[in-house]
């Protein structure tokens, strides 16, 4: 019996994408399937970056076909294509930027900047083109974390600033434009204006994702920023103690109010593992991030331990995802990055309108 396209498709239907939980046929990821005698060739196009998953997915597809009678050679090409998604109503997308991910926290000092840096690097490691915009006006830390502290952006055309390259990321920080040693009183409108200028006047080059390290808190400045920046979705970083979770809930509500979808919650400093004896301790409490996600029906993206390695590497200007790319911590950041990217990919291009249409009727 000779091999048919239908039989191959049927066999491929049994393969579930581990990242989306759906089969690759019904999600239309299988392209250009060609059956030539006993040989099969096709492409798989994932909607999210997942370099680390290409080989395992290829292997699962091969395994699914191996049982077919009359099977010859199998050639599978796996790639990723990230598309642009809609943002809040009334806010325009940025040229050269497909999706913007806001990394926010209700409370300061929970590790938002460290998470933002590692998330951006993890998305890049999975094969995406990624930018990092440090909008933390209270304490811009990305230049230091990305090891580019003393460099300043240049302008080639006199109109736009060139982002600074760091570990493959296109980086821009409010810290490049202000002297962080000088105490500055930033008022709301000034901060918004500075951020808008950085967003629009940076020469972003074909970015799949721009990660924004937001200023911590849920005050007027944060609210204005979350309204004016064209955000695809927000990631909330929290530590597990009650006070941080309370503030994280406020952050969540703030984004909800302005129509920005929540991509999920990252619990940082979740557990402490003693570097000497390996004893595990929930210093800041256990399970808080997960239960907050259960309450609001949003994804729990993952948990990072309180680990000296994370602090040392970030402070030294080479965050863990680049310092120890094959380690356990980098694997957690990459898993979080894939969940964020999958959640964006699954977002409908037409965002549900938050505000009702106003119809004027002539009577
Ligand atoms: N999981 C972790 N384990 C150990 N240290 C961490 C971890 N996450 C962050 N840190 C350290 O905690 C400090 C605060 O982190 P970070 O600057 O990322 O917090 P933040 O929430 O962005 O703060 P801010 O409110 O100032 O913006 C840094 O020194 C960082 O290296």
Automatic annotation (TrEMBL):
Assigned keywords, A-Z: ATP-binding, Hydrolase, Iron, Iron-sulfur, Metal-binding, Nucleotide-binding
Chain segments annotated as transmembrane: none
InterPro entries documented for this protein: FSCA_dom_sf, MIP18-like, Mrp-like_CS, Mrp/NBP35_ATP-bd, NUBPL-like, P-loop_NTPase, YlxH/NBP35
Function: Binds and transfers iron-sulfur (Fe-S) clusters to target apoproteins. Can hydrolyze ATP.
Any one GO cellular component localisation term in the record: cytosol
Organism: Parazoarcus communis
Residue numbers binding ATP: 106-113
Subunit structure: Homodimer.
An annotated Gene Ontology molecular function: 4 iron, 4 sulfur cluster binding
GO annotation (BP), single: iron-sulfur cluster assembly
Protein name: Iron-sulfur cluster carrier protein
NCBIfam families linked: PRK11670.1 (NF008669)
Family named by the database record: In the N-terminal section; belongs to the MIP18 family. In the C-terminal section; belongs to the Mrp/NBP35 ATP-binding proteins family.
Keyword NAD attributed: no
UniProt superkingdom: Bacteria
